[in-house]
Amino acid sequence: MGKKVKKETESPPKDVFDPLMIESKTPATVVLMLSSPENEVLAKACDALYKFASKGDENKVTLLGLGAVEHLYKLLSHEDPLVRRNAVMVVGIMASNNDVKKLLRELDVTNSLISQLAPEEDVVIHEFATLCLAYMAVEYTTKVKIFEQGGLEPLIRLLGSPDPDVTKNSLECIYLLVQDFQNRAAVRELNVIPPLLKLLESEYPVIQSLALQTLEVISKDRETRILLEEYKGLGCLLNILENNELNDLHVETLAVLANCLEDVHTLQQIQLTGGIQKLLSFLKVSTVPDIQKNAAKAITNAAYDSEILKILHWEEVETFLLRLLETNNDDVKVAASQAISAMCENIDSKCVLGLQGIPQLVKLLSSDNEELKEAVVTALNNLTTANLRNASVVAKAEGIAPLIKTLNAQRDGAISNAIAVLTNLALQEPIRASIQSQGIMSALVGPLRSTNSQVQSKAASAVAAFACDAGARAELRNVGGLGPLVELLHSNYEEVRRNACWAVMVCGSDEVTAFELCRLGALDILEEINLSSKRKNKFSEAALETLLDNNLSQKYSRMGYLSPSNIITNGFYDCGQVKHGGKFLSLEELSKQELTDRRAIIFINAKPQESVVEVQEVSPSVSGRSSKEKPRFVAERMGGPVEKEELHNFCWELDMSEIEFDLKSNIVPIGKIKRGTFYHRALLFKVIADRIGIGCSLVRGKYNRCWNEVKLVEYTPKGLLLPPQEYVVDVMFEPGLLFKQGSAKADQYKRI
């Protein structure tokens, strides 16, 4: 036998490095390893970085500074499953850091992460990819990218994952995404309701709670509520409430039910199954603030249906709500006040809540919580609207002072509702007087200046309610309230403009306030409004008429006409016709002007005795026949009758100039005039006729022509009463002669 030859071992290739075990304790070295071409090195480096990053936020910041995130981002799409898995783990754990999230957004990592959610991927990849997406979905732009890059569908699919961490992360991401309305519609179309309802049976409370929170958000949309009912979701919710072992989920469950109860159909379905009674029996015994709050919200939504509202009343829900007002939790009190507002739609509930609840609500007006204050005054508004008894209860509960104080609140809703309550109370005269005595007009100035249209409208309406008293109008003038009221006439909101016109109409019912309103430009604005077919309203027309009727000097100057009901009193002055766009000056302003050669301002300031004249001398004759009595009083005081042919020689201007020169003023009392023409005589005739009760109009024509118009009733020879006829009175040529309106002689008298 031949000798055995020992077989030589095969030597390794010359270009391969012998295995080298490296022990590194510095993260910088490991980060450098992320650039290795070897899959095993990459996998081990990622694993080491995951353990390092898990130890705390400082380590994540360190890795960020070493540039690890950029390397890891590239490895998310690595072909080796182990490398890819470990890289996703590191990115997922690091994404809890805000600076890391910012860099990941800049790298647009969402698309890479969404691609890791494919069914064939490892469950660990699913866990950390969804974790990273959940961290990043807090920010709006990431939500948009997840939606645009198709991330919703795989996230909803992963709600059925057997791994609870994957389920939780996916659910949390969906919860964040549906805060946006667009995503709510999208998840509804992707049929998210069934998996969410299934998760309510999860053995993990955190998953159950997240599912309920997500349902609460998406059930704000009516379409989702319909689907929730179709999938028997209401029964699931009621079952949770009936299970005491699930009491940690009752708050979120009630929040979902509160949304569902907004729909009448859903309400009816719950009622048919006895759900309303079950719900109420549960609510009445709970002492948990969040449950009480959501319970009150559920009642608020349920109360929109009149039939359910009756059931709520039969179940004495009012007692439950009044009890909630006594809790120490402001959020509960807010929700209870809102529910009380909703219950006021039922008359019986309104009575019960008014008598027992108003004193409690009034006490809450002193709260520093602005949201609570708004909810309380809103409830008081609904309780006192069209209910005089409840309004009286507010007054008896000493609610007037805190309501007026609420007009300085920070929330517009609180201000507008407080004003509305005070306006409701003003329907009773004794209460209105009490409110006026406590400075309501001063308190309304701030709301009148508000930029909120609702506050403006309510404030103007309140001015109209309280300004019926002369003292209140004086207070409003003195505190500068007329200026902002006039400004509201410019409003583009119809309701604000209408209420402002109403308030101006009421305020303008006395001469002093009417004059001030005119001075502030109310007349110009009202005239402009009434020229517009879209902007004018009945109140704007009435306001203009009221202002002019209580400021006859300006009415005559602007319109050149005074009706029989416009009674001229002392203080009236005729300054001639104001040109369009010109400013009407007060008598005080006119008195400060230097003497000019323009026409004099005729002023009325007669003593009471001067108004007593012989009626027969003032009464005009009828049917165009001249009276056989002596010349009329007016003509006699103004230079006597004038022959038509000699009118140009009737030199009244010289006499007027002499009077102005003697008085050193452009203002001439009418009693000083000894020679007067048409407009002097017609004015004097109107003044005297007004004082002795003869209905008479004053009309301004052109070129110093003015005339008076009267209506007289004639009898037929058989004693039949004929309809009144209108006549023009001659006080110039044949004093006392009447010309039938529309006749040639009447027209000739009016013109040169």
Summarize it.
By secondary structure, the chain is mostly helical. The N and C termini lie far apart (164 Å).
Account of the 3D structure:
The protein has a domain at 562-750. Mean pLDDT is 88; it is low at 1-6 and 609-631. It has 752 residues and is mainly alpha-helical. It has a five-stranded antiparallel β-sheet with strand order 1-5-6-7-8, sandwiched between helices.
Shape: elongated
Rg over alpha carbons:
44 Å
Low-confidence stretches: 1-6, 609-631
Structural class estimated from helices and strands:
mainly alpha
Tally of helical segments: 44
* Strand segment count: 8
Distance between the termini: 164 Å
Show the helix and strand layout.
Layout: H1 27-33, H2 39-53, H3 57-65, H4 68-75, H5 81-94, H6 98-106, H7 110-115, H8 123-136, H9 140-148, H10 152-157, H11 164-177, H12 181-189, H13 193-199, H14 205-218, H15 222-230, H16 233-242, H17 250-260, H18 264-272, H19 275-283, H20 289-302, H21 306-314, H22 317-324, H23 330-343, H24 347-364, H25 370-384, H26 388-396, H27 400-406, H28 412-425, H29 429-437, H30 440-448, H31 453-466, H32 470-478, H33 482-487, H34 494-507, H35 511-519, H36 522-530, H37 538-549, H38 552-559, E1 561-562, E2 573-574, H39 587-591, E3 601-603, H40 615-618, H41 633-637, H42 652-663, E4 667-669, H43 678-692, E5 697-700, E6 706-712, E7 725-729, E8 738-740, H44 744-750
Parallel strand pairs: 3-4
Antiparallel strand pairs: 1-5, 2-3, 5-6, 6-7, 7-8
